[in-house]
C-alpha cells in the first residue's frame, strides 16, 4: 500500500485492481481527481516485460499517468478530472474482444467517475469493443458515434506548443528553417512530421520500429532518419527535440547531451524524475510541459461526449499555442522552470473547483 500513498505519486481518490481469469485480464484503473468533473484518460495496454515486477510497474505507471491527466485536463480548460487505466500484457498476444468487454464492465462499475479512451497499445477499434459494455467510452469510430483517431489533434496541439516555443525563443510562431528531431513516428509522430514539413522545418526522425521510419521516408523522402534516440538527441544543429514515444525521455543521461534549444513532444511524463526540469533550465533548454502541449487528443475525446464537432475541437486545440506562451510568461515572472509554472496554474484551477463545491464555500 505504501506505493499508493507515496508523496510523489499519491493524492489519488481511487485505485481499482481488475482481474478476469477467463480472459486473462489484469488491469489497474487509477482515478486521481474528480474536482473538475469525471476523470478522463486513456487505457494503456503494455507488457512491462523488462521490469522485475510487471504488476508493480503497471501500478506505478497508472498512478503517474492519472495524476498527469488531472493537470492536463485542468490546463486544457476541460471540465474533467484525471484518470488512467493500464491493461497488463502484450497486446499482440493477449488482446481479444472478450478481454476488452470484460475491461469495459470494470470501467462501467465505476458509474461514470472514470471515462476511458485510447492510449499506447489501444486503438479506435478497441474502444468500439469496450463501448459494448461501457457507456463511458470515448475515442470510438465515427461509425459508432465517436470522434475517431485522437492522435490527429494530439499532433496538432504539439505543433501549436512548438510554435509557441519558437515565438518565445526566436520571436516568430514558425518552425520554418529550424531542424526538428522527432523520436517516435507512430500514431502521433507521423502527423507531427507532416505539420512540421508544411511549416518549412527540416525534420530528422527515429523509431524503434524500422517499418515506421520506412513509411515516413516513403511518403516524405526529404526527411532524414538516424539509428536511434541517442543519435537523434546528439544531432548537430538540432533546434527542437520532440519525444513522441514512451515517457522518461528526459533523464540524467539524455539532458546533458541534448543539442536542441527546445524540447516539445507528445510523450507523457517526459521528465524521468523531479529535478530534471531544473537541469534543462540550467542548460538553457526551453521545455514545453508535455501535458500541456499533448492535450489535443483529450480535447478531442472530451468533445465527443457532447456530440463530436471536429472544427470546434480543433479550435480549442489551437489555443494550446496561447496557453503554452502564458506558461512561459508565468515561469519568467515567478523565476521557475515552465514545468513548475504549469503545475501551479493547474493546481490553482483544481483547488478553486474543490473550494466552490464544498458546502458553505
From TrEMBL:
User: Can you state which reaction this protein catalyses?
Assistant: L-valine + NAD(+) + H2O = 3-methyl-2-oxobutanoate + NH4(+) + NADH + H(+)
**Alphabetic keyword roster:** Branched-chain amino acid catabolism, Cytoplasm, NAD, Nucleotide-binding, Oxidoreductase
What's the top EC group for this one? oxidoreductase
Q: Does the keyword Magnesium apply?
A: no
- Catalytic site positions: 84
Q: What is its EC number?
A: 1.4.1.23
Give one Pfam hit by family name: ELFV_dehydrog
SMART domains (alphabetical): ELFV_dehydrog
Q: Which GO terms describe its molecular function?
A: nucleotide binding; valine dehydrogenase (NAD+) activity
- Which ranges carry the Glutamate/phenylalanine/leucine/valine/L-tryptophan dehydrogenase C-terminal domain? 148-358
Predominant cellular place of this UniProt entry's protein: cytoplasm
Q: Name one GO cellular component term.
A: cytoplasm
Q: Which residues bind NAD(+)?
A: 184-189
Q: Name one GO biological process term.
A: L-valine catabolic process
Domain of life of the organism encoding this protein: Bacteria
Q: In which pathway does it act?
A: Amino-acid degradation; L-valine degradation
Where in the cell? Cytoplasm
Subunit structure of this chain's protein: Homodimer.
Family per record:
Belongs to the Glu/Leu/Phe/Val dehydrogenases family.
What the entry lists under PANTHER family is as follows: LEUCINE DEHYDROGENASE, VALINE DEHYDROGENASE
Q: What is this protein called?
A: Valine dehydrogenase
Q: What is the lineage of its organism?
A: Bacteria, Bacillati, Actinomycetota, Actinomycetes, Kitasatosporales
